[in-house]
Structure of Membrane protein involved in the export of O-antigen and teichoic acid:
Amino acid sequence: MQKKLFKNISANILQQIANQLFSLVIFYVLSRQLSKPGFGQLNGCLALLLICFSILSFGLDQLTVKKIAAGESPSTIVSLYMIHILGMGALFYSLLAMIWLLFPAQPLLPVIFLLSLGKFQSFIATPYKQVTAGREQFSTLAGMSIVSNVVKGIALVIAQALHSIQLHTVIVLFILGDTAELLCTLYLYHRHSIQSIRFVPDKKAYSLLLREALPQLGIVICTAILSRFDWLLLGIAVSDTQLAEYSFAYKVYEIITLPLLAIAPLLIPRFVQHYQQQRKDLSGIYAILRLEMLIASFLIVITNMLWTPLVDLVTAGKYGAVNSNTILILTFCTPLLYVSNVLWTSGFAQHRLQGLLAVIAITCAVNIAGNCLLIPLLQKEGAALACLLSLLVQTVLYFRQDRQIRFARVSYAIVCHPLCALTSIILVRLTPLAFIPALAAAIILYILLASLCGLRTKKEFSLVSHFLTADT
């Protein structure tokens, strides 16, 4: 079991490192080669498509993982999911065609349409990936998940070397990357699948599946809005330049969630099995939260100390100093995001979808109100503050409605580790130290402060390992 855990975590870590590395390459090439307005418009279109296809999923992606982990037939689940995908795809393109007819002069509609061709292929690949995740075949899932970014990243580097980066080139390469992802996913699924897929339309079963997913739909809508509403509002209410700057900082913020992305696919099956077997010992879950606070806070220190000198160096001064306040605020969202993910997984595994929906709906309302109020006043920093505020509200509400996990057991870690990180950053920035000595000083100071707060990494790792490898 220990060997399987190591293999699963290794596969997830390698997948996330590869994905984030090539995602960073993509973002870097585009940020250097496209103008800020052009970069902002492209990110705005991608943000809109992310929201649309997330909503169209109806939450069946997470429901699929839960059903497969609980032992249901992959063939039936994929067959029903594919009916949903084709129906939602027809709805999406019908609505897009109507909008195009009503607003034929809108210059971004062709861009949205072409990019959506790639995103729809990724949409088709989703059920196969989720079944693979539910089976805990994480090595196979890693192969499915990295193809798109690898193809896009390599192709963009080649295009940059040939001095041929234009918007139409980017669109074509994005479609090719998504096509490669779909083909690779189908190949790997059928190669490693025990049971073949038979597509049998079953309206009654599909209706029951949608009814089960209905509470999750509200969560999906709110989560989709939370993920990119700030991008859209910045582009509409402020400028494409502000959107370009904010999206660059936000992308780095997403990259530093790598440890969360590595462990998150492992948690849903384990939490489902934990609550199905009615285990009372939650020490492993508390250890996960404490370790995540340590890791998230360490990443806060590293990111903020590296930000301005490193980013200005690699982007020719375009995205470093102008984003120093933005990235500081966004990085302090990371601990809250880690905690929220664990609490959401706990609630999802206990089938408390209505409670989760209520929390996320309130969070979504806070985020929308915060963005509408703060973006006109503070622009991209306002968007970052709205993100931090909404995640804080979400975390508090999750703890209040969770029947198992208690805030008192982890409150010290949630409060102390981020405060240690902030203290380290502020104190070192007050010194005249140069770049490398300042980075080293901040790291050492954070470790010392965290040690004073009761750092117990060996014990925490042991508890986490036991939780993730418990016999099922």
Q: What stands out?
A: The chain has 18 helices and no strands. The two ends are 10 Å apart (CA to CA). The chain has a mean pLDDT of 83. The chain has two domains: 1-201, 214-472.
